[in-house]
Amino acid sequence: VSPQLHRRGFRCLHGVDGSAGMLERARSTGLYQELRLCVLGKDPLPAPAEHYDAVTLVGALGEGQVPSTVLPELLRVTKPGGFLCLTTRSNPSNLRYKAELEAALGQLERSGAWQKLLAQEVEYWERATSEEESTRGTGYISGVVYIYQKCPVPHLEEG
């Protein structure tokens, strides 16, 4: 994702990963100002509250990967009015996780924590590793891109 963000003018990129090897791979791109080891869903993000204008989590929200319970932590480090871009797959082996994720996304929206701006199905998300995972025999699996905006902190009336 970082090369795409960089091409579009984003220059202050921070990254986390639970794998030292993946962090080294990210470091080799030269696109990140900061990279930290962090197991999402287990460790708190290494950033203060309301620190980032935008948070992305692409390719990690899935069965056996990052639990949907990470969402409040992603919100914690996002500035009020900031954006969160999240993705998940829609292949058969991820449908239970996707339903759980969407329930958690909806609960946070109903609580007023954020507002959904987009939930876009992408038919050709990535190549399928088996025919059973393929969407309608295309050789690909589909996925979803979600974009949310963190709700601003309400202003308190004086007096």
TrEMBL record:
InterPro entries: Methyltransf_11, SAM-dependent_MTases_sf. Gene3D superfamilies: Vaccinia Virus protein VP39. This is MET27 protein. It comes from Aegithalos caudatus. Signal peptide: none annotated. The gene is Mettl27. It comes from the Eukaryota. Residues 4-85 form the Methyltransferase type domain. GO terms for molecular function: S-adenosylmethionine-dependent methyltransferase activity.
